[in-house]
Amino acid sequence: MRNVFRWWWGILLAFLLLAGLRVFLPLPFANEIIIFSIYTMGCNFLLGRVGFISFGQPAYLAVGAYATAFYLYYFGTNPYIGILLGLLSGVMVSVIVGPFFVRLRSDYFALVNLALAVIVFYLMEKILAGITHGDNGLWFLTQMSSTPVLDLTKPSHFFIFAFLVALALWAFYKYLDDSIYGACCLATKINEDKLKFLGYNNFNIRWLAFVIANTTTALAGALYAVYFGFVSPEITSPARAADPVVVTILGGVGTLYGPIVGAIAYTGMKDLISGYIANWELFIGLLLVFIMLAGEKGIWGTLEPILKKDLFRKRILPGLRGKGDESR
Amino acid sequence: MMDAQLLISGVIFGLSIGSIFFLMAIGLSLCFGLMRIISLDQLLYYSVGAFISYSIFVATGNTWIGMFGGMAAAGLVSFGVERFVYLRIYERDITFTMIASFAILIAGVGAIKYIWGLVPRPAPIPIETQVSILGTAIPVYRLIVIGISFLVYGGIWLFLNRTIIGKAIRAGIEDVEHVEGLGINVYKLFTMTFVIAGTLSGLAGGLHAPLIMVDPQMGLNVLAFVFMVVIIGGLGSIKGTLVSAFLVGQVTSLGSLIYAPLAQMAPFAIMLLILLINLTGLYGSKLLKR
């Protein structure tokens, strides 16, 4: 029992704080933070655990969002089924493109992903304009029917749903971290030859990681679609391709709570800055350059060791602090 | 199926587009070869080149002066960025520098929006005349663009093969540590390569500006195509970049003649095909581990 509690308490504490945000902050802001942190979690897993940097996350976001939007606009009215379809389409797309992508070197991987994002953008804006209505986007906010228990058409109920989804996801990722599979992922990042020597298949490990991360991203896309009740090609535009990477690094690469911290900081800053300056890209870019020059640990990456040491009296013996721990 | 006139103008259009892609991709390729960085901010120097040449044209009325000004400005900006940012992060991981360069690109686009505003502006074509090739009217300006790109390729080839500095750069592409051991200051080589790359990107921007509208997002618009060129050709190879630039140009141009949306999709299909066969593109180096 004690062990179970020890495993869960970090996540529960983090999400208790997140639920506390709901009291202080306006609802749209809290919703956006939750969706954004789910979006970032996929990128964080790829970058922090498997060592793949991806500038193409908007592509998978769009896959999830458009699958949901198509269902809700043309076929049905139940938002839950829409979200489920978005999730499934994310699995499908990443299973199909995965084998081509994960064989590539990390630098090629990033570039190919970016190219994919641009292709999806053109696909949605021009080629499939008959179905997606091009730049006008699909509006289906009024078409969604109310559901019992948690009514997703109401923002306050949507918050509870997104909150539960995020909680489940974080528990899942924490479970992955503790599992043998999570260790294998880290090992592919650090020393793939050794892992191969131990009898593991690098390709399968990467492929599975790719599918997991991009399904998470697609789920975020589906949540976006249901929350706004509107999808346009804007979500996959190349100008926003850096967002998840920026937030991942801002929060701390490979840390469990980095995405949440990063999402709060990024969304908050965006809201603050866009109140004063119209084009906040300049500021975001400069901020990122500054973070990169200052060292790549990010907010949570810097805070975590301090918290662990001073607050919880949890010490890692210096001898045990290996390369694996550092790269997390 | 397709008449000859349309085909010829399509080929010329593809060649001129390919030339622009080549001028931009060569910078990325050189930077990767020597410094092992993926410098996404070349696209910023492209925008800077286009905007400065537009502004100088508005001030003086001469497009050619504008292009030289754009080149010079792009070179200066790239020099500043190299000194202030890259010099501190060359040692880091390749993904790290890629993120930093993307940050510079985003910041630069923001700065351009701040200075010039969001409205696309038309830059005039310096030479309006057309010549007739096999009965097809071809704008001379496009031919000049193609000529300039071949001149640049020849110049780069001569520079890398016939000068001491060029030979040092080529040696650096093979093994930086040995070059350092010979007493050559590699950081000077890095700066020089980066500025050359930035200047060429600026030239590409200045040349491309009359063919399209000048707007702040222009760098992000060609981003995908430049990456396809670099990926297909293989990072770090100049010959591969030339071949793949013209390949992508032709596929874009001829593809759009057959079916308009193909222009954006066909290069991607070709890229996937080539990566399936060879993981590092046509002429890519296998030097770097994943």
Short overview:
With 328 residues, chain A is mostly helical. Helices cover 74% and strands 1% of the residues of chain A.
Q: What is the string of helix and strand elements of chain B? A: HHHHEEEHHHHEHHH
Q: Fraction of residues of chain B in helices? A: over 70%
pLDDT average of chain B, as an integer?
82
Structural class of chain A: mainly alpha
Structural class of chain B: mainly alpha
Task: Give the low-confidence spans of chain B.
Answer: none
**Number of folding domains of chain A?**
1
Give the class-level CATH name of chain B: Mainly Alpha
CATH hierarchy: architecture of chain B? Orthogonal Bundle
- How much of the sequence lies in strands of chain A comes to under 5%
General description of the model:
- The complex is a heterodimer of chains A (about 325) and B (about 290).
- Chain A contains 15 helices and two strands.
- The longest helix of chain A is centred in the middle third of the chain and has 27 residues.
- Chain A has one domain.
- In chain A, helix 8 crosses helix 10 and helix 11 runs parallel beside helix 14.
- Helix content of chain A is about 75%, strand content about 0%.
- The C terminus of chain A is likely disordered.
- With about 325 residues, chain A is mainly α.
- In chain A, strands 1-2 form a two-stranded antiparallel sheet.
- With about 290 residues, chain B is mainly alpha-helical.
- Chain B has one domain: ABC transporter involved in vitamin B12 uptake, BtuC (Orthogonal Bundle).
- Chain B has eleven helices and four strands.
- In chain B, the strands form two sheets. A two-stranded antiparallel sheet of chain B has the order 1-4. In chain B, strands 2-3 form a two-stranded antiparallel ribbon.
- Chain B is globular and about 60 Å long.
- The model of chain B has no long low-confidence stretch (mean pLDDT about 80).
